[in-house]
Amino acid sequence: MKLDFRGLELHGGRMWQRHNVVAALDFIEAHGMTAMVLHESDIIHHLVFPRAWFDPYAQWKYPPSRRGENALQNNLVYFDHILGLAEARGIEVWLEVGELAFPGKVLEARPKLNKNSIVCPSEPAWQDFTTAKTAELVEEFPSLAGIIREMHAP
Predict the structure, then answer these.
(1) Which of 75, 82, 106, 152 is the most exposed, having the fewest neighbouring CB atoms within 10 Å of its CB?
(2) Does 145 map to a domain?
(3) How many domains does the chain have?
(4) Is there a domain that residue 71 lies in?
(5) % helix / strand / coil in the chain, to the nearest 5?
(6) Contact 123, 63 (CB under 8 A)
(7) Domain carrying residue 90
(8) Pairwise CA distance, residues 120 & 24, whole Å
């Protein structure tokens, strides 16, 4: 029986080092695999910071709401390059993420998410935030194969 999905997973910092990604792609190709899975619980926040929630031009008005804008842009270019390397070999790229993950700036932008000094996970705004960041990710990287949501047993 041949499986349609055969992937190699890279975790954390290794995915941000091009030589490790190229080595992984070489291995995937040599072994007839189909996908590379990049696993970092908050990787989406290294790639996008939802414009629907944060004005990307705010830095010209007052201190930037999307802190780390330069790092974010560098990550966008790097990730696009990685997608291109994989696509040239016919290898899919998937992200594996954890939820609910968010940058601290979200709590500054939406103070109602904090109830008596505790982040409230049932606020409807979280669904909006997750939708916004995912939509922006898909828009930025249309060749991304998909997102895998990591699950933890109760």
Answers:
(1) 152
(2) yes
(3) 1
(4) yes
(5) 45, 15, 40
(6) no
(7) 7-149
(8) 39
- Tell me, yes or no, whether 2 lies in a domain: no
Place of tokens 């249309």: 142
- Segment (H or E) for 76: helix 69-88
Q: Is 6's pLDDT higher than 60?
A: yes
Q: What is the pLDDT of residues 20-78, one digit of tens each?
A: 999 999 999 999 999 999 998 888 888 888 877 876 655 445 555 445 567 788 899 99
Query: Cα separation of 92 and 38, whole Å?
Result: 11
Q: What is the DSSP string of 103-151?
A: -THHHHH-GGGEETTEE-TT-THHHHHHHHHHHHHHHH-TT--EEEE--
Q: CA 65, CA 105: separation in Å to the nearest integer? A: 7
Instruction: Using DSSP, state whether 23 is helix, strand or coil.
Output: helix
Angle at the Cα of 58 from the Cα atoms of 136 and 144, rounded to 5 degrees: 15
Q: Are 91 and 34 in contact (CB under 8 A)?
A: yes
CB 107 within 8 A of CB 53: no
CATH of residue 18's domain is 3.20.20.80
For 110-126, what is each residue's pLDDT tens digit? 888 888 888 888 888 88
Which residues, listed in sequence order, are joined to residue 10 by a DSSP beta bridge?
Answer: 38
